Amino acid sequence: MSLLPDSGMTVDQIARLVGHAGSSSVTELVYRKQIRPVIDEGATAINDLFPGEQQ
Fold first, then answer.
1. Distance, CA of 30 to CA of 46 (rounded, Å)
2. Exposure string (b/e) for 24-49, b if CB count within 10 Å is 16 or more?
3. Handedness of CA 10, 15, 21, 24 (dihedral sign)
4. Cβ–Cβ < 8 Å for 14, 25
5. DSSP, res 53
6. Residue 30's closest CA among 53, 55, 4, 8?
7. 16-50: per-residue pLDDT in tens?
8. The pTM is what?
């Protein structure tokens, strides 16, 4: 879900998609603040392991 904002979805749209009723603050906290950095760090680690494989 943390990649959806990159595709143009708003936080409010994502909140509705995952069932966070009312405020989108839970969505903002979980999907943008907690998961996205982990995804970015994982992608960097994989790129470091396989440096010649990027396109």
1. 23
2. beebbeebbeeebeeeeeeeeeeeee
3. negative
4. no
5. G
6. 4
7. 888 877 777 877 777 766 677 777 888 889 999 99
8. 0.48
